[in-house]
Amino acid sequence: MGGRVLKLNKLTFFVLALAGLLIASTTTLFLPHRFFLDTNILILDRYNEIGFVGSYPLTILFYKITGLRYVHFAFIGFLQYSIFMIVLYKIGIPERFHIINIKNVLIYFMFAVIAIYISMPSKEFINYLFIAALVFLFKNASYKLSKKVTIAILMLVTYAFFFRPYYAFISVLIVVMYYVSRLRIENKRVLAISTSLIVLIFISLSYGALKGVFLSEKTRYYVNSERLGSENANSMILSPVKPDTWYGESIGIVYGFLSVNLPFNGLKYLKSPHIMVFIVWQFLVFFILFKRFGRCLDKGRYKNEELWLFFILFSFFVVQGIFEPDLGSATRHKAGIFPLLYYLFYYEDFRKKLR
């Protein structure tokens, strides 16, 4: 029976991978032009942004030196999606992956999301590989946990310098969550997330005091102000209070965090079924991961590698409260951290195989 279960879970994985590969190779045939706005910037580089620092310059450089900017998108989709699946296969396939339940269906859905959102030339391709490297680091049994944490923080800071500056906030927030986890209190996960939000608000207000503009005001608010009324503005995240005061910025960050993780305001999209699908998916994903975070916290900190991965994941969710301009971008960025989502959905399964 065990052999049959193993075959069924692998068969399910390969069927999903092949279906996703077909989608990834044909996106140019059915996706609207707006899905390729970033792609055209990365491939054409009309403003000569190529360089070694910054997500756009470095991604443009990557596609140039690999030669991928000169080939058809169908080939890029095929190649990148194949790499995505190889990474997941190396992480592992859960024993009960073939069973139809809510947890598995949410992951099945992500196979298609990856094919649609990040299989064309994308900054998320690099992000996906970076996140995968973090997962493999904590899966590596040859390092002590303290060494893994040190390496992970150095990786996050380096990545922030060269590619995505907001990952520096994640390196701070995981330490905040760790110290909250040491407290002898109930509901550590709620306090960890709440404290991280407070720390992030403090960082933004401090930045505003020095620079004259707050972080979410500089990113989400200014970006969305330019897009009002356009066809790309359907799922924009607009805070009920303008983020140009300390209280407006504070409300805006909390509102942004809730909008992309617990979209309580999703009822306004009832007339947009495609947006509602992502809202329901996001709510269920957060709920399941929140429960698993609590279960992982209950096991204590000793040799608990997964706990640090949960710190990284929920720190990322918190930081999304600053910069995500809309629900589409939030979904794309979550596709870029899918190796981490995938691993933490099934970490108990993978942990058994390591023993």
UniProtKB/TrEMBL annotation:
Keywords: Membrane, Transmembrane, Transmembrane helix. The keyword Protein biosynthesis does not apply. The chain crosses the membrane at residues 70-91, 97-118, 125-143, 149-178, 190-210, 275-294, 306-323, 329-347. This is Uncharacterized protein. It comes from Neptunitalea lumnitzerae.
